[in-house]
Amino acid sequence: MVDDLRIGGAQRQVAGLAVALAAHGHAVVLACTEDGPAGAELAAAGVRVVVLGRRRVARLVSPMLALRIARLVRAGGFDLVHAHVHAATMAAALAGRIARVPVVVTEHSMASWRGPLARAYSRPLYRRCALVLAVSEQIADRLRTVDRVPASRVRVVGTAVFGPPMATDPSGDGSPVTVGVVGRLEREKGVEFFVRAAARIADRHPEVAFTIVGDGTLRGELHALAGRLRLGDRVRFRGMRTDGPAAVAALDVLCVPSLTEGAPLVVLEAMAAGVPVVATTVGAIPHQLDHGHAGVLVEPTDVAALAQALDTLLTHPHERRRLGRAGHDRLTRLANADAVTAAVRAAYRDAFRRTRGRGYRDG
Asked: What is the pTM of this model?
């Protein structure tokens, strides 16, 4: 269960995991409150997508969604619910009790948007889950300390690039060099600081195209900012794309200027394609980039440092290539899809062991 199948790192992780589990012989159904581009990929892999309801549910607790999940579980004879993203997680925690099946949830972010009320109602719902998985150590620590999930129920499973990586075609043949952001245009993604950094170095690099791939509530605001900074058509807003990995692979430098993150898949996708990364020191990004050895790290909101890092890579193609190779080499050791799938399957087995004797079905 996931809130929606819109374009995003969490959604790509969920879709990739569902396909991997189906390949291991599990009968997998992916439920959501809104379909999206991943639906066709899932269907081709034999994973049925079920849309529950008529509108997307996000960032809230929906008893109606919980009832719909419970009905789906009972009708399909499912053994376990694995939920991702806030609304799905909260509803699944309730549905598991109704349908008498264990629930495993995965947390993909630091949930910085949650206020005191959301924290308060999340805590008892987490306690209804057999296990709570985290994609990074930072998120696991948040679960234990802020959300008060017992340490014995928290597991770190990591993230991975499922499927073959996109091949990169770096500039070097006279074509324009492209540096860009790929992600949601929301405050926590820090895209404003990318635009401000681009304004600082645009005159030094007239051959460079600055690209923003994605959409969100800040699109108009970012357009206006680019205009005020006299960037004109130097910043290209590409809108939402369904092929996120291809959009990343087409870049010469990926910028991740986020203010908060979990373990962003976009960083791993860049590493898989050999694209060098300039990113902020938030969430699991320092671990992903080996604390700067496989990418360049700057502090969040530091426009001067971000501009300097981008300027250095745009000035020195050999450094771009070196970091691209270092990132690719590190990815092979860091984010193995088979290892992530195995960790999730082990969590399922543990969830069954924990819930036997409590009125749940045996698995």
From this structure: 0.87
